[in-house]
Amino acid sequence: MARYVAGRFAGIVVILFLVCLFTFVIFFTLSPDPALMICGKTCTPERIDQIRGVLGLDQPYFTQFWTFLTAIFVGRDYGSGANLIHCAAPCLGYSFQTNQSVWEMVVDRLPVSATVAIGAAVLWLLIGILAGLLSAVKEGTWWDRTAMGLALGGSSIPNYVLALALQYVLVVWLQILPFPSAVSFSDGPVLWFQSYLMPWVVLATGYACLYARLTRANVIDTLAENFMRTARAKGLPPMLTMRRHALRPALTPIATIFGMDFAALLGGALITETVFGLNGVGKMAADSIAKNDQPVIMAVTLLAAFFVVVGNLVVDLVYTTLDPRVRITAK
Amino acid sequence: MSDLLVVEDLTVTFPTTRGPVDVVKDVCFTVGSDETVGIVGESGSGKSMTSLAIMGLLPRGAVTRGSIRLDGTELLGRGDKDMRRIRGNQVSMVFQDPLSSLNPYYTVGLQIEEVYRAHKGRSRKAARKVAIEALEQVGLPDPERRVDYYPHQFSGGQRQRVMIAMALVCSPALLIADEPTTALDVTVQAQILRLLADLRRESGTGMVFITHDLAVISSIATRVLVMCRGEQVEYGTAEQVFSDPRHDYTRMLLDSVPRIDDSPIDEVMS
Amino acid sequence: MSEPLLRANELTKRFVSRGPLGSKAEFVAVDGVSFDVRPGETLAVVGESGSGKSTTARMVARLTEPSAGTLEFEGEDITTAKGATLARYRANVQVVFQDPFSSLNPRHTVERILMAPLVYQGIPPTGGKRAHARELMERVGLDPGHSQRYPAQFSGGQAQRIGIARALAVHPKLVICDEAVSALDVSVQAQVIELLRRLQAESGFSYIFIAHDLAVVRQIAHRVAVMSKGRIVEQGPVESVFGDPQDPYTRTLLAAIPRINPEWDRRRREGSPR
């Protein structure tokens, strides 16, 4: 088991290195000169050269990549003398457009993205799994057909459409909720909850619909298993039969998918955060793409990749405890 | 020997798009409290449907008529709650494929304990002790350790032993074995047949043994019911059915059984 | 004694599974198995699950590569044959599988299924496709008028007859039956065994008959190889292996076979002379 985990960690390091290399190559060879972007309107060739020197753009690509990599572990300095800017480890680069270390920007915004992701996850797990379960148990009834029809419709509504519709109905028309703004928990729990409610609902809708359909399919498959017939032949109470024998086998695969979906969301819910003006990693990504702020784009890409590969590992490790058949072979 | 199970004119009807279909038609048989009745038939003969009807486990939509009496009390038309108290307690069942019939997510100990606890209402600790005893009774070596094993850690024959332990843990009056040895290798089959016969004799349980294999039936049953397309074509003592079958279908079946002790190949080649 | 049609010499199949960090686990499914199949004879390979009998069949059919050992067909080494040699071998050696439905394409008509081996081999059907298919169906006891039907329209026994007809389409010299009658009901099984024997008597090809049911093997085999844990523990003429088994495993296997009470059986047969 320990060897297995060690092996997987080595794999993760390799993947992250490749992601670094890939994003580096794409951004530093295919997009416009970052020095030009920083330089602004009153730009002279001397000024550009100076900026290139500060950013290290005059170095060979290999050296630039090496500096980028080592900066993650030991930090780096931009410029020299009075203009020296120190980017402390873990340094993911420095945004000269916002004059901030990218790492600090990420650390600032990650809690917002995490709040959005966790709240939405709670919502979609509750609603999705419950609806799917009910549909499976009442397969073929009006409830099942209605719920699955809604699920199919719900998963085909784009997030921004849903977000704008919700805002119009709840904020502009019914005026139940305040206009969404970046509110922290210290501003009061009620206000905090109100401002996050819409993003949660919007983000959760698509997932809830997907999870409802997945849960329904898995539970129906499990109910047809021979061991369910055994459980009934044993005269077990229906609730025990359902809870113990049907739910665990049916929900284990969903736990896997959930881990992956949730990890991906920690890397930022781009559309939802942008629509509701939440200062999360997703909105940061959108802003930096709009301004072509390359260090930030790279960092966001790396961060998303990091969450996905780590999420993947966590899911695989959790799976070995959820499914005894895997547990034995992993040893 | 008293009549433990009396099945009279049992008919099971399934609704289909082309109208109702009788998968079991007017089947009658009795099982004494200390005997094995074999139900034999080819695929689609209705033999498994008969056993599910006794258990009250027919698929939704199936309509049952006739009478199934266990110890004098009628089982047909009982509510699910009543049937639940009977299933696993007074009547229990062993199925064909022991791997898929056991839940892969739980230890065999838990799966045996839960039947006992559901019917006898005892503590987890008491149930665990009973489970270990049950595993020992079916001849599983080292039951104290194996009680915590998962189904995939056993061989096919061992899994069927676990299923049998689970079926017998509440000392039921009737055991229904539906093709219990069909998925097993022939040497393992012999062991399981012997085990079933021994346990049945020791515990005084009545048994319904369902199979497609006439040779297996001949070695275990005292009475035999032959089914074909839902109908009962022959019913009598094993000796009568095997030595003096009345029905052409039974004769045809018996003639089809490949025999290990004589080889017809010379007849053809010469 | 005539020259063997097929000679398997020390056939071995090892399966290697690799762990996440290159840890290796080796499993020997077939361990140095040797046998001959002579023209016109039936060699049965029997054993319980995991004995390696099916892997042996797959190696002989060249569906899987042997890890070691050689295969000779009519004196020619075809262990690693490729291209035209392999194609010729495939035309000479056909396989009938256990589950007739999953080994027949459900979207193809019987005629198309039966003609497929000819198409692959590039052999023109005698008298045209329709006529050839009808002739094959007649040979295996199917109604030739059903050549345009699909597999799902046939019963299990009939579907297995289609599988047999397909194997015969290219006039093979060796037919490998991998548990070909195991999934069938006993009355249907008896008919299919009868068919297999009749076809052999008519055409003189050989069978390798893979089975777990010794009673079935007794009905059809001339010689028997008993496999256990990847090895052949005993092989010889059917009468001597079944009548006077030498290996303890063969004895256990034979003793375990359920038999109809011999006394009852004798009385029935005497009572009704049929």
Structural notes for this entry:
The complex is a heterotrimer of chains A (331), B (270) and C (274). Helix content of chain A is 75%, strand content 3%. Chain A has 331 residues and is mainly alpha-helical. Chain A folds into two domains: 12-91, no CATH class; 103-330, MetI-like fold. In chain A, a hairpin with a 4-residue loop joins strand 3 and strand 4. In chain A, helix 5 (102-137) crosses helix 8 (189-223), helix 6 (142-154) crosses helix 8 (189-223) and helix 7 (159-173) packs across helix 8. Chain A starts with a helix and ends with a helix. The mean pLDDT of chain A is 86. By secondary structure, chain B is an alpha/beta fold. Chain B has a domain at 1-84 and 210-258: P-loop containing nucleotide triphosphate hydrolases (Rossmann fold), CATH 3.40.50. Chain B starts with a strand and ends with a helix. Chain C has 274 residues and is α/β, with parallel strands linked by helices. Chain C has ten helices and ten strands. Chain C has helices at residues 53-60, 83-92, 110-121, 129-139, 156-168, 186-203, 214-220, 238-243, 248-256, 262-271; strands spanning 6-18, 24-37, 42-46, 68-73, 76-77, 93-96, 174-178, 206-211, 223-228, 231-237. In chain C, strand 1 (6-18) and strand 2 form a beta hairpin. Chain B binds chain C through residues 42-43, 156, 185-190, 193, 212-216, 218-219, 238-239, 242-245, 251-265, 268-269, and chain C through 48-49, 156, 185-190, 193, 197-198, 201, 212-216, 218-222, 238-239, 242, 252-265, 267-268, 271-272, 274.
Query: How are the strands of the biggest sheet of chain C laid out side by side?
Result: 6-7-8-3-9-10
How much β-strand is present in the residues of chain B? Answer: 15-25%
Q: N- to C-terminal separation of chain B? A: 52 Å
Give the helix level of chain C as a range of percent.
25-40%
Helical content class of chain B? 40-55%
Assign the CATH architecture of one domain in chain B. 3-Layer(aba) Sandwich
Q: What can be said about the biggest beta sheet of chain C?
A: 6 strands, mixed
Total domain units of chain C: 1
Could you give the order of strands across the largest sheet of chain B? Answer: 6-7-8-3-9-10
Using DSSP, what is the number of strands of chain C? 10
Termini separation of chain C comes to 37 Å
The arrangement of helices and strands of chain C along the chain is EEEHEEHEHHHEHEHEEHHH
Q: What is the CATH third-level topology name of one domain in chain B?
A: Rossmann fold
Instruction: Tell me the Rg of chain C in angstroms.
Output: 20 Å
Rounded mean pLDDT of chain B is: 91
Q: Main β-sheet of chain B: number of strands, strand sense, barrel status?
A: 6 strands, mixed
Element-level helix/strand string of chain B: EEEHEEHEHHHHHEHEHEEHHH
Shape of chain B: globular
- Please provide the count of β strands of chain B: 10
Mean pLDDT of chain C: 90
Alpha-beta classification of chain C? alpha/beta
